Amino acid sequence: MKKVCSKRSENSKIILRITATTITVNIFLMIAKMVLGIIFDSLSVVSDAIHTASDLFTSVLVVGAVFLSSPKRDEKHNYGREKVEALAILFFALVLVGVGGGLIWQGVEGIVSPKETSVNYYLIAVIALSLVAKETMFWFVRHYSRKIKSDILKAEAWHHRSDSLSSIAVLIGLVADAFVRTTIVESVAIIFVGVMIFKVAFDIVKPALGQLTDRAANEQVYSKIREIALAVQGVERIDCLRTRVFGSKIYVDVTIAVDGNLTTIQSHSIAQEVHDVLEGQSDLRIKHCVVQINPVVGKRKQGDLRKLF
Hints:
- By secondary structure, this protein is mainly alpha-helical.
- It folds into two domains: about 1-210, Alpha-lytic protease prodomain-like (Up-down Bundle); about 220-295, Cation efflux protein, cytoplasmic domain (Alpha-Beta Plaits), CATH 3.30.70.
- Helices cover about 70% and strands about 10% of the residues.
- The protein contains eight helices and three strands; from the N terminus they run αααααααββαβ.
- α1 (about 1-40) packs antiparallel against α4.
- The two termini are about 30 Å apart.
């Protein structure tokens, strides 16, 4: 248990370091885009600056989720508070839906009421810089989300990607100004980006909803648990196996059948070994495993009598 808590603590430190880096980058980009957008009266650049400001808010949300989603039990939370991460991811998705909707609305307005524009290389430079920085942050955060298997970092990474997509739309519009001299091209690009952000929101919210509704682990995990349990000496068959996703971990309830002639101590020893072996599989990310015992009476065909109830 100490080893698990230590790993959890180390992961939390990694998330906090990454978040501190992203906050620093976002503050710089937000100020640069906001100042130049106001000076040169560019609504699209100011909107992009506001989008970057939303990243600051969600980064603070990540920090809060890390501290609140403690796996430690207390009197009011007997199973810890790891589902806070799933709630934070759900909020991320809602923020992205708001951003996508806002971009689509802005794009429609630009098509209905196009405005004349002029080429501004300062704005093009700052948006290009933002694009490179946000795309770099996406790959940076995504790398660590996979390394420590953090869903909340994955959501944060895709939020950075949404910002880079927004910057692409603005950049296309600014460059197109040199040819068409109106905001129509930029508006079309913004609508396209808004739709893409909707899709990103759906992709990241789907697993979070599964966690909040105690979705079962996938078939690959189920098969591996069954294989490991059956490999323990003394286990005759698996009578029942149930799993549920809990934050970034899973709970396992398994009922094994053992020889009915064994003593209580012997049967308990087999159950304890199944418990220890399963919880020792780090790749399964099992938070807790409950093993129950059924006695085998007479000769019965071994098999998996999986029951879901």
